Amino acid sequence: MNDMSRLERTVGTKNIKMECRDCQVYYGDTHAIKDVNVDIEDKTVTAFIGPSGCGKSTFLRCLNRMNDTISVARVEGQFKLDGEDIYDRRVDPVQLRAKVGMVFQKPNPFPKSIYDNVAYGPRIHGLARNKAELDDIVEQALRRGALWNEVKDRLDAPGTGLSGGQQQRLCIARAVATEPEVLLMDEPCSALDPIATAQVEELIDELRQSYSVVIVTHSMQQAARVSQKTAFFHLGNLVEFGETGQIFTNPVDPRTESYITGRIG
Amino acid sequence: MSVSIITLIVLGIAVLGFFLGRQRALSLSASSGKRLHSLPGYYGQMVFLFAAVPALLLMTAWLFMQPILIEGRISANIPDSVIPEGGARSLVMADVRRIAGGLDALIADSGMTETALDQMRADETDVRSQLGNVGVALGSDVPVQVFEAAKEYRASSKTGSLLMSIAVLAVCGLFAAWSLLRISPDQRARNVSEGFVLALLVGASLVAILTTVGIVTSLLFETFHFFKLYPAREFFFSTVWNPQFRGGSELGILPLLWGTLYVSFIALLLAVPVGLMIAIYLAEYASKAMRSVAKPAIEVLAGIPTIVYGLFALITVGPFLRDWLAQPMGLGNSSSSVLTAGLVMGIMLIPFVSSLSDDIINAVPQSMRDGSFGLGATKSETIRQVILPAALPGVVGAVLLAASRAIGETMIVVMGAGAAAKLGLNPFEAMTTVTVKIVSQLTGDTEFASPETLVAFALGLTLFVFTLGLNVLALYIVRKYREQYE
């Protein structure tokens, strides 16, 4: 898979979906993100790697303004989605999060049925006019989340009763159901076993057909397997950003090389 | 020897045992070259516990049993002739105890010797005035038999205490010596003290459980008496509450039960929505600074004595409701009304609901909120559709606890809703509740063994069953749904 995607990588330039310039994040007095510039391409998987506490999750949470819910966090700089500043006063963060969906580290299905979990977003945003349409959206989302065949007979069962891997795929289906343009994933596999991880990775690769995916991961192998672009963060700085193949085989910055070879981390 | 001196001696032996035990463990280990199984202190602790605990337990049991046994024997010896007409044997026994106490005082104060006391006769000396001199006033002259019984009571108590001192000290010494001799490096002294800790904890829980059992049995006993005097069917199904001092009362519980439920319902109607909204505000919207001010401020409400709430109902809420609502609408002109008591009680319950619900809402994992916000839900959508359903079992539990509190409330009802037992729908009318009637029936001056007084116990038991049922239901709901989001 790695070789194939490396071939694909060289084909054509893609549209820039999100553009981030001079980004700073402060948590109280701590300067958590310093001068980060990243372009996230459409229909591409971008991986953020780096040691714990380097700011990759913080930066990810800037992309859909989830940091707004933390009162001490302060964000500066330009974040553009399709050329529009998402921190502009006219932008409603709630609408933005419908466009830029998010999947979290720990599977967090709501204590509702599988169906209601997936239908949650579409219901809030009024995506379906009637029950039949909603059924359709739920089925499509569960198919996209590669979960349909496993749960189609028990849509009324509680989402919390699924296995860890199924729960995470349910969360992905739930995020997909609101038809986002960008999908943010914060270490989506860190709570999963290797088999569930493989399933989710396969799913991420399929999602790339329709969305721009940004994934934060601790596993360099995972970044190498699923992503086309990789950004390496260290101590709040973006050290290096480029084609995944190049970052892993021929890093420019010595810090990147040290991290990849396991000398810092 | 008095109880406190014995206790001190026992504790002294136990402390001595502690040091001896520790010393012995150390020297045994040194001489045999074996490592001690436990730290040396544990061996000392073991000797301490074996010396103190059985001896003190024996003393407690003895102190309980001795008066019962002695009184049983002496009261059987009192002839029926000295029991006054219409009086009870227990009243005579109370006299016996007081005379015995007086004789003790006589010896201590006026220097009378034991032999002089033995020769003293009720028909020859003026016992009443002698006892009066040492501060024990008796209502009438002492009959010979009662005086003799008192002397015997005194003598038996003295022998009893002497026997007790010997037995307690013997047990203390024997157990201390036995546990000292048993010490060896292999002995598991840690586990022994673990066992004592367990027994202590179980004992503490037993106190709570046995108290509940005691309360219920005493209620059951008197309720049983009541139903022997008054038909149960009338009590449970009659719609008239009309106690008479001369008998022939009608004691139907329905009007009281209706008043209780009506007042509680109004109270919950106010307390649940307001309390829940406060909880949501505090848990989800309020800033840290706001929360640290608002939460204690709201909990002040819980600290106000209910009698103060009652005053508030009596002089403020009641007249206000009468002048601005009841009279203009022509619904009555009483300042005590169901609505008054219900509203004031509702205010009292707000902190119960809000504080418990706040804790429960805070316990919903942050990942639920993140998940919902990440899908583009607003705060109130998240609360309505994710947080409240997840917190629902706990919230229901909080509401049911508040309900049992409301059902048991007395003072606010007395002062806010009045004391008239009525079945009616008009919330501006005075009504009353079960608890109020329990108070008024027990504090009236009717005879204790009459149905008018005993009905209080039947009412109490009914109330207890009601609140117990609510608590069980609350626990069941909380348990059944608790783990859903974990």
From TrEMBL, chain A:
<dbReference type="GO" id="GO:0016887">
    <property type="term" value="F:ATP hydrolysis activity"/>
</dbReference>
<keyword id="KW-0067">ATP-binding</keyword>
<dbReference type="InterPro" id="IPR017871">
    <property type="entry name" value="ABC_transporter-like_CS"/>
</dbReference>
<dbReference type="GO" id="GO:0016020">
    <property type="term" value="C:membrane"/>
</dbReference>
<dbReference type="Pfam" id="PF00005">
    <property type="entry name" value="ABC_tran"/>
</dbReference>
<dbReference type="InterPro" id="IPR005670">
    <property type="entry name" value="PstB-like"/>
</dbReference>
<keyword id="KW-0547">Nucleotide-binding</keyword>
<dbReference type="InterPro" id="IPR003439">
    <property type="entry name" value="ABC_transporter-like_ATP-bd"/>
</dbReference>
<feature type="domain" description="ABC transporter">
    <location>
        <begin position="11"/>
        <end position="260"/>
    </location>
</feature>
<dbReference type="GO" id="GO:0005524">
    <property type="term" value="F:ATP binding"/>
</dbReference>
<dbReference type="GO" id="GO:0005315">
    <property type="term" value="F:phosphate transmembrane transporter activity"/>
</dbReference>
<dbReference type="GO" id="GO:0035435">
    <property type="term" value="P:phosphate ion transmembrane transport"/>
</dbReference>
<keyword id="KW-0592">Phosphate transport</keyword>
<keyword id="KW-0813">Transport</keyword>
<protein>
    <submittedName>
        <fullName>Phosphate ABC transporter ATP-binding protein, PhoT family</fullName>
    </submittedName>
</protein>
<dbReference type="InterPro" id="IPR027417">
    <property type="entry name" value="P-loop_NTPase"/>
</dbReference>
<dbReference type="InterPro" id="IPR003593">
    <property type="entry name" value="AAA+_ATPase"/>
</dbReference>
UniProtKB/TrEMBL annotation, chain B:
<keyword id="KW-1003">Cell membrane</keyword>
<keyword id="KW-0997">Cell inner membrane</keyword>
<dbReference type="Pfam" id="PF00528">
    <property type="entry name" value="BPD_transp_1"/>
</dbReference>
<dbReference type="InterPro" id="IPR000515">
    <property type="entry name" value="MetI-like"/>
</dbReference>
<dbReference type="GO" id="GO:0005886">
    <property type="term" value="C:plasma membrane"/>
</dbReference>
<dbReference type="Pfam" id="PF12501">
    <property type="entry name" value="DUF3708"/>
</dbReference>
<comment type="function">
    <text>Part of the binding-protein-dependent transport system for phosphate; probably responsible for the translocation of the substrate across the membrane.</text>
</comment>
<feature type="transmembrane region" description="Helical">
    <location>
        <begin position="42"/>
        <end position="65"/>
    </location>
</feature>
<feature type="transmembrane region" description="Helical">
    <location>
        <begin position="454"/>
        <end position="478"/>
    </location>
</feature>
<feature type="transmembrane region" description="Helical">
    <location>
        <begin position="195"/>
        <end position="221"/>
    </location>
</feature>
<feature type="domain" description="ABC transmembrane type-1">
    <location>
        <begin position="257"/>
        <end position="474"/>
    </location>
</feature>
<keyword id="KW-0592">Phosphate transport</keyword>
<dbReference type="InterPro" id="IPR011864">
    <property type="entry name" value="Phosphate_PstC"/>
</dbReference>
<comment type="similarity">
    <text>Belongs to the binding-protein-dependent transport system permease family. CysTW subfamily.</text>
</comment>
<feature type="transmembrane region" description="Helical">
    <location>
        <begin position="297"/>
        <end position="321"/>
    </location>
</feature>
<feature type="transmembrane region" description="Helical">
    <location>
        <begin position="386"/>
        <end position="407"/>
    </location>
</feature>
<protein>
    <recommendedName>
        <fullName>Phosphate transport system permease protein</fullName>
    </recommendedName>
</protein>
<feature type="transmembrane region" description="Helical">
    <location>
        <begin position="162"/>
        <end position="183"/>
    </location>
</feature>
<keyword id="KW-0813">Transport</keyword>
<keyword id="KW-1133">Transmembrane helix</keyword>
<dbReference type="InterPro" id="IPR035906">
    <property type="entry name" value="MetI-like_sf"/>
</dbReference>
<dbReference type="GO" id="GO:0006817">
    <property type="term" value="P:phosphate ion transport"/>
</dbReference>
